[in-house]
Amino acid sequence: MFIFQTKSKRMRLLSVIYFCLLCFTQMHGQSNKDLRTVESILHRQAQDWNTGIIDNFMNGYWVSDELMFIGSKGVTRGWKQTLDNYKKSYPDKATMGELSFEVLENEKLSKKSIMMVGKFHLAREEKEDLSGHFILIWKKIKGKWVIIADHTS
User: Are 84 and 133 in contact (CB under 8 A)?
Assistant: First the structure.
């Protein structure tokens, strides 16, 4: 009887450990998938920028008056105002140049939010190159990952 109780307890303990590992693996797998998804969106934005069409680049941002962009000129609120500022600052393909990103950190803060830290480089032939760092806050809204806050300097 003593051996049976010990094996039974051992089996229950192993079952609990297995269940916990399974849950952790699934959560970690989903977390990695979400991190890869936002990195993919970011790289698609660079491709869109490099075609010279700012409207397509903006597809990664939350289409809302609550979108926040922080840059050298201060805080901008709203998707439309952010788009207008980009178009004013980058009126043609030569000014836009070739954009590339390097993700330095990408951390899932919750099931529906991610913080990304990285570097950007804008290579331009006719003007001086630009480079700097950014922090993006991503949020999953209606099943889609979008940038809700962008601090680029």
Answer: no
34 Cβ neighbours under 8 A, 6+ residues apart: 108, 114, 140, 145
Taking a C-beta distance cutoff of 8 angstroms, is the pair 122, 132 a contact? no
In terms of phi and psi (left: phi > 0; alpha: psi -120 to 50; beta: otherwise), the region of 24 is: alpha
Long-range contacts of 71-76 (CB under 8 A, 24+ apart): 71/151, 71/152, 71/153, 72/153
Instruction: For the chain, give the percent of residues with pLDDT over 90.
Output: 78
Stated pTM of the model? 0.80
Evaluate whether 58 touches 79 at the Cβ level (below 8 Å): yes
28: left (phi over 0), alpha (psi -120 to 50) or beta: alpha
Lowest mean pLDDT among 30-34, 63-67, 79-83: 30-34
Give the CA distances from residue 121 to residues 42, 131, 134, in Å, rounded to whole numbers and listed in that order. 13, 4, 11
